[in-house]
Write a structure and sequence with these properties.
five-stranded mixed sheet; five-stranded antiparallel sheet; 13% strand; binds ligand MTE; binds molybdenum atom
């Protein structure tokens, strides 16, 4: 069956066809559907990985009833969050190149062909604005720079849903052209277009090289063989007191006095048979356990550290807490979003979930959480509470 081409909704008068609306207004051969399709594919892959890993991180930090994040494999969060940040960074040059390639389409004539075309064009606004917003807020967060009033995780999270919704509409509208341009055309057609300046193939190489260079100069913040190349990463995982970075110092958390107070006691309370109150000497006289575990910050850096301390599980058994209990780990810090975190039963019972007294062979530095910090396998850095004062069985 041959479909009749649909008539335009309204036919705009030809005398409006001036400036960028002229037929030959954009001459570069780089504004090509084939480049747009290839970049679109690469962006689709980056966005999907970035969205899935970001969603996962959100679920881990704010678990709904149906979601439980296990404590094993110990390094899984480190991998998913590194992927989130790396794909987000690689998407930026791809996105800018794609916008440049397709922006002449903004002036297509007639501006609206039919209802579907209108929906597709409207969906470009949340797609482009959302992508730019996510890229900007993500990069700013990596640099701990918050030039806005909203709460970063919430804004970044909701923008990602809007962007992905618009992306699905966009993919629906463009699947045919991508199939044709990226898969069924002869690769030699990249040579086809004549004209001056950069070739299409050269343009694609520049973009791939830029995305690659950005990845290589940032991923060393989590992938140690590339440490020395992490020129653009704000954190080097091997630099900081005791050989690894600090996200929040004791001074800025306002705990310098309470953490050093001789009257310091770890309290274990809530739904327990016996409340405990343990001095540092008493904690040191309990069985000490060693574990090498990463700090995996949501901002993409991670560092492996050798920890030593008391098992949370042992303390819960001493206090007579239920096996299935959720434990709130509370800091001496009196305010701040990250002053407490929860251990689900999988994490609370894990033999490597510790309240650490030492790291890399020495007593904890105060910026790493002296006198006592939580460290457990497969947890985001924000949930590795420092300066722990209390465990509360909920
Ligand atoms: N009490 C408290 N603990 C905290 C934080 C905090 O702000 N307050 N920041 C967390 C974050 S975001 C990270 S990445 C890790 C970093 O630990 P480090 O400073 O020892 O590397 O500590 C976590 N523990
Ligand atoms: Mo963090």
């Amino acid at each position: 069956m041959v479909r009749k081409p649909r008539a335009p909704l309204i036919a705009p008068p030809d005398r409006l066809r001036v400036g960028p609306f002229r037929e030959d207004a954009f001459t570069s051969r780089l504004h090509s559907p084939r480049i747009a399709a290839l970049l679109g594919l690469a962006l689709g892959v980056c966005f999907t990985i970035c969205f899935a890993t970001g969603l996962l991180s959100h679920l881990i930090q704010q678990p709904p009833d149906w979601f439980t994040w296990p404590s094993r494999p110990a390094g899984l969060y480190r991998v998913t969050q590194s992927l989130h940040v790396a794909t987000g960074i690689a998407a930026i040059p791809l996105l800018l190149a794609k916008l440049w390639t397709v922006y002449p389409r903004f002036w297509v004539w007639p501006p609206v062909k039919n209802g579907m075309h209108l929906v597709e064009r409207i969906s470009l606004f949340p797609l482009v604005a959302g992508s730019l917003f996510l890229a900007f807020t993500g990069i700013a967060n990596i640099g701990l720079w918050y030039p806005w009033r909203f709460f970063f995780p919430a804004g970044h999270y909701w923008a990602s849903w809007i962007t992905m919704g618009a992306l699905i509409v966009h993919i629906g509208a463009k699947a045919g052209i991508v199939r044709r341009e990226a898969f069924t055309r002869d690769p030699a057609s990249l040579h086809e277009a004549t004209g001056e300046g950069l070739s299409r193939r050269g343009f694609l190489w520049v973009i791939v090289a830029t995305a690659g260079a950005l990845t290589v100069t940032t991923v060393g913040q989590t992938f140690s063989p590339l440490n020395r190349l992490a020129l653009l990463a704000p954190r080097r995982p091997d630099i900081g007191p005791q050989g690894f970075p600090v996200n929040k110092s004791a001074l800025s958390a306002g705990v310098t006095d309470s953490a050093r107070a001789p009257s310091y006691r770890l309290r274990v309370g809530g739904k327990v048979e016996r409340e405990l109150s343990l001095s540092l000497d008493e904690l040191r006289s309990l069985p000490q356990v060693e574990a090498t575990l990463p700090i995996s910050c949501v901002e993409g850096w991670s560092a492996n550290v050798a920890w030593r301390g008391v098992r949370v599980r042992d303390l819960l058994v001493m206090a007579g807490a239920d096996e299935e209990v959720i434990v709130s780990v509370e800091s001496l810090q009196t305010d701040g979003l990250y002053r407490a975190s929860e251990l689900n039963p999988s994490h609370a019972r894990d033999p490597d979930t510790l309240l650490a007294l030492d790291c890399n062979g020495d007593e904890l530095h105060i910026d790493h959480g002296f006198p006592l910090r939580l460290i457990g396998p497969n947890r985001p850095g924000v949930m590795q509470t420092k300066w722990v004062g209390e465990l509360i069985a909920l």
